[in-house]
Amino acid sequence: MPVAFVKAEPWAAHARVAPVCTVQDGWYTAAGNGTRRCCGGWQFLFAGFVPGQAYRIEWETRHQGIAVPGDELAAMTVWGQPDLADVRFGTRFEWDYIFAMPVAEDRVRYSGVLVAPEGADTLAVRDTLRWSPAGHSRASLPTVTCLGGAVRAAPIRVAVVTGSETKARQSRPTVAEGVEFYAGMTRQACDQGAKLVALPEVCLDWHVPGHPVEHALAVPGPETGRFSELARSYGATIVVGLHEQAGDEVYNSAVVIDADGSVAGVYRKVHLASFEAFSGVVPGDGFPVFETAAGRIGGNICMDSSAAESSRLVGLNGADFLVLPIMGDHRASVWQRGNPVLDEERWRAIMSVRAMDNQLCMVVARNNARASCVVDRSGVFLAYNDGSADFILADVPGSDAFRKWNGGCFRQVNWRQRRPHLYDPFVDPMPAALARLAQD
After folding, report:
1. How far is C-alpha 27 from the geometric centre of its chain's CA atoms?
2. Dist CA 232 CA 146 (whole Å)
3. Among candidate residues 122, 149, 176, the one where a domain is terminated
4. How many whole angstroms separate alpha carbon 15 and alpha carbon 33?
5. Residue 407, in any domain of the structure
6. What is the CB neighbour count within 10 angstroms for residue 263?
7. How many domains is the chain partitioned into structurally?
8. Residue 422 resides in a domain
9. Interval 250-306: pLDDT, tens
């Protein structure tokens, strides 16, 4: 039985917050009630869904008098038939936000793909006007298209290749020795099915004496070519840390080599450590995400980790994986003068929060092996190196579906709750915190 439209009804959590709802010529209008507490709109009910099938939901909303469309226009779907005043679903329903893409100054297009959960045959679609005293929105009747059976992507086997703590600390005074050391273990990891391999920070020239300008490497070049051969042979994506020579500039870089052996992209460390920042090494200028056979991959390197913006931007740019080659994190060391001592409890907290806050899988390759890890986007550690292993492996679900206790999708909520028009201090070069430091 095909999906059928059942009815459209105004909804609001309370009569005193309800917008003024009317329908004319197939357009469903919600208008402000003169107060900012205005919140509600139209609920469209559809029936005839088949569990396990994927469906595309689409409609257009036109608006007028709306100051911030991303704030004042919102939409969600609820599997079932919630009461028209119900906004606290508890554990009764599974629900999702539907995202709006601006298509004109006064129009947005809602579109989303949903998979009908077990036991679901009805879907409520809510088009919402909120926080707008005098604006109004006009929604078209949503369309529902069955896309067929949902296909779950296969898990991705991820490897973090470091060498054991003892091996990692051994001297390798030439780049060639560094290449051999990491290439050999990369092959072993790929022999065990790894399709995404992460190597540590500047690992190919880590132990090489002298200044980075003396042994930085061209990309692509013979050294990365060794890993390109492995990538082609195993159909694996490999992320290699090195000092990169680009013209007359030297960067601390992570080279993303795709499964066909090509360089999918290069991430250049944006936030340099104090000694790097005054050494002539040049910082990168962005947080690109690269499409690869293993998924969408973004990078941070070492000191990037302590700037929350670094991982946030990788998440905002749509990454599935954040690969983090890292020597160590100054927040995860003893907070007093003296030689750094790794505090693994702090380390775990940092990596777990980064994964959850940005809804991506953290793949962390620490040069000294210990505390290298793979963390899924729910913050759970799938693999952790206690320092004894040459590499660790984890199978990361290709299409997970983490949901809150109340049925909402973590990833949807994470991004839809944002109100970026309020975040000016995030990009202010002289925020109050920095100004205060100048005064203290």
Report:
1. 36
2. 37
3. 149
4. 11
5. no
6. 17
7. 2
8. no
9. 999 999 999 999 999 999 999 999 999 999 999 999 999 999 999 999 999 999 999
